[in-house]
Amino acid sequence: MILSMEDIKALCTKTSFERGVDYFQMGNVTDLEQFGNKITATVEGTRDYTVTIRTDKKTITATCTCPYNWGGYCKHIVATLIALSVNSPKDTLRLTGSYSFLLLISRWENHTIEILSAI
Q1: 80: which residues sit within 8 A by CB, 6+ positions away?
Q2: Under DSSP, is residue 17 helix (H, G, I), strand (E, B) or coil?
Q3: Kind and range of the H or E element at 98?
Q4: How many domains does the chain contain in total?
Q5: pTM given for the model
Q6: Domain of 51?
Q7: Tens of pLDDT, residues 37-87
Q8: Which residues contact 2 (CB under 8 A, 6 or more apart)?
């Protein structure tokens, strides 16, 4: 289940979305892995936080090890969801190290306008 920027925006506060976009653009999403319907990533922030996302055909649930508790998903989950929407992973995905624009350049061009227009 890949979400559009509008879908992601609906799952969080405006501030979390904007900061999640920043985190994604800075390459803070690392160690992104997908096995079946479970996706994990490390997102660099004040410290490294672990994001876990589970999906099925109609729902998505996500958790993060950060202390955020102010409604909707945190910026770390948002950054991970954006990374997933740009990468469109297959059944098994493992990207380690910095999730930089060099890894995404071919897909990034297609999503730049969508991300910027969602802000």
Answers
A1: 29, 32, 39, 41, 43, 51, 53, 62
A2: helix
A3: strand 92-98
A4: 1
A5: 0.76
A6: 5-118
A7: 999 999 999 999 999 999 887 889 999 999 999 889 999 999 999 998 887
A8: 84, 85, 88
